[in-house]
């Protein structure tokens, strides 16, 4: 029962694309595979995404956005002080990445290949995440919890200093014994750094 | 003028091995290539290194040790206070890695493949480096510059938090504009964290 092209939304194409990527891997997945999975012509897919590159970019962005959306709620959780929000946000980022890597390793490997190719999408994703961090650190600077002259620069430093716990190049280590203690030690050190007066 | 086997030292074999790796890459380099480069039989090479794996391990360890040896002098430089020693040590590590990656990219790529295969050698190298860091942080705890209950744990955290500036998976970014400012921002934050009283 192939759906008619009326019901063909960008979101449905992206869902199908992810499934095709999971099955065939990034090197072999084609727009024809996606169209076949949806029971439509490849022309119908191209009406939504003008090139294969655009489709790959959109599906990768959607995958990355799933993480940012999960974290966005923590940024505004004003029931928690900024220090706690920062810890919770970093822990949620680590948990989200760890789940992605552990629950579906093939898809994670596929997206790791795609993000290596799609520098611009990753750049935007990192800008999005460090933007969220900047808002938490700005709140902490406002409340006096943090002593930070430049919250955006501090957010970049915190994001980079915690790379071991969110950058895919460390995915193999996310199940190592002691990794949770290591995460806590790094976050403690960074929170102390943000909290102490500048010299 | 092939040298006699009397003059064949482990160090000469390792030098030749590095040259063979540079020329052929890690996948194709063989013990026969190394023996040929030295003008000796492969049996003579095996008298020093009993297996190809042992030879690869030794040459990789030698390459990694070059970095640790450069840094060791900073650990004991008591003319500088521990905070400055920590900054200098991290900057020297970044500089050493950056030089290795930039001056001889083929050899760097080769050793990155080898270190991926040789987990034990890398583990020892990291233990060696964090051991050096632990000595600096211990000195800082003794002098009151750092407020750190567990210098070894703090050293691991500092090493991991600065991975962007020494881990080969970030080598591509070491020439990016702004990387030096990013390095300074991360190190400042960590030094502040180490210096502030625990809560």
Automatic annotation (TrEMBL), chains A, B:
Signal peptide feature range: none
Known DNA-binding region: 30-49
Keyword annotations of the record: DNA-binding, Transcription, Transcription regulation
Domain annotation HTH tetR-type: ranges: 7-67
Record PANTHER family: HTH-TYPE TRANSCRIPTIONAL REGULATOR RUTR, TRANSCRIPTIONAL REGULATORY PROTEIN
Designated name of the protein: TetR family transcriptional regulator
Species annotation: Streptomyces musisoli
């Amino acid at each position: 029962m192939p759906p008619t092209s009326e019901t063909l939304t960008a979101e449905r194409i992206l869902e199908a694309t992810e499934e095709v990527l999971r099955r065939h891997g990034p090197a072999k997945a084609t727009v024809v595979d996606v169209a076949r999975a949806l029971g439509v012509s490849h022309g119908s897919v191209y009406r939504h995404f003008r090139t294969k590159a655009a489709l790959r970019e959109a599906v990768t962005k959607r995958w990355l956005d799933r993480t940012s959306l999960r974290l966005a709620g923590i940024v505004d959780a004003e029931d928690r002080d900024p220090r706690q929000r920062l810890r919770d946000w970093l822990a949620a980022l680590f948990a989200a990445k760890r789940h992605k890597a552990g629950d579906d390793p093939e898809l994670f490997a596929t997206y790791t290949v795609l993000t290596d190719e799609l520098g611009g999408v990753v750049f935007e994703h990192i800008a999005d995440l460090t933007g969220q961090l900047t808002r938490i650190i700005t709140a902490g600077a406002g409340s006096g919890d943090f002593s930070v002259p430049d919250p955006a620069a501090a957010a970049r430093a915190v994001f980079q200093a915690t790379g071991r716990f969110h950058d895919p190049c460390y995915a193999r280590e996310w199940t190592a014994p002691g990794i949770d203690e290591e995460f806590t030690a790094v976050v403690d050190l960074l929170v102390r750094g943000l909290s102490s007066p500048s010299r």
